[in-house]
Specification:
single chain; alpha+beta; 5 strands; 14% strand
């Protein structure tokens, strides 16, 4: 009888502690568990993606000056719960870095795409597909640099291990009045090999 009482008591302790009768914690959905992730846990996820070292450097607060406005995604992480309500897809994204405190570059584990989450205060947040491979993601980023008048494209490309700089430089030299900026960017990104 005492053994049965002890068994019931253990089950009650597990029940009220949230570990269930098996002794294991209940499994959280990815959106819940990632919502509670610490900066170090996110950094480890970024490292697991096999991206160039600069992305780990960002999480260590060592951003090369040429990557204008880049920082670890503190603003995004502080607003993440609110942003998830507008953009549930973010639950599957690994934050890579933030730019100017209102844009997050991230990797969507579910789709395999790199995205930019734009979340400026006073505007509805939205996602922009940057590329379906790392090289295409960086191509899209470099096109944005061209549009912003950035002249240090070679240095940026080297830091980001971009293999197709000649395409970006040719793009920077040409002007196609028949295409709008977004269409021209999409065409260039699609022309970049995936690896």
């Amino acid at each position: 009888m005492f053994g049965r009482f002890l068994s019931i008591l253990k089950d009650l302790v597990r029940f009220f502690s949230g570990t269930g009768s098996s002794g294991a914690s209940p499994e959280k959905r990815p959106s819940e568990s990632r919502l509670d992730s610490t900066a170090e846990e996110w950094r480890r996820e970024v490292l697991s993606l096999g991206l160039p070292p600069v992305f780990a450097d960002v999480w260590d607060d060592r951003v090369p000056a040429v990557l204008t406005g880049w920082s670890w995604p503190s603003t995004f992480l502080a607003r993440r719960a609110d942003l998830l309500r507008y953009l549930p897809r973010l639950a599957d994204c690994v934050p890579l870095c933030e730019q100017f405190g209102d844009t997050l570059f991230a990797y969507d584990r579910k789709s395999g795409e790199f995205v930019a989450c734009h979340f400026a205060l006073g505007e509805p947040p939205y996602l922009e597909k940057m590329g379906d491979s790392y090289q295409r993601f960086i191509a899209a980023y470099l096109v944005d640099c061209v549009y912003a008048g950035e002249e240090r494209l070679e240095e940026i490309a080297a830091i980001l291990n971009f293999s197709h700089l000649e395409a970006i430089l040719a793009f920077a030299e040409q002007e196609d009045d028949d295409l709008d900026a977004d269409e021209a960017k999409q065409q260039l990104v699609a022309s970049i090999p995936k690896n």
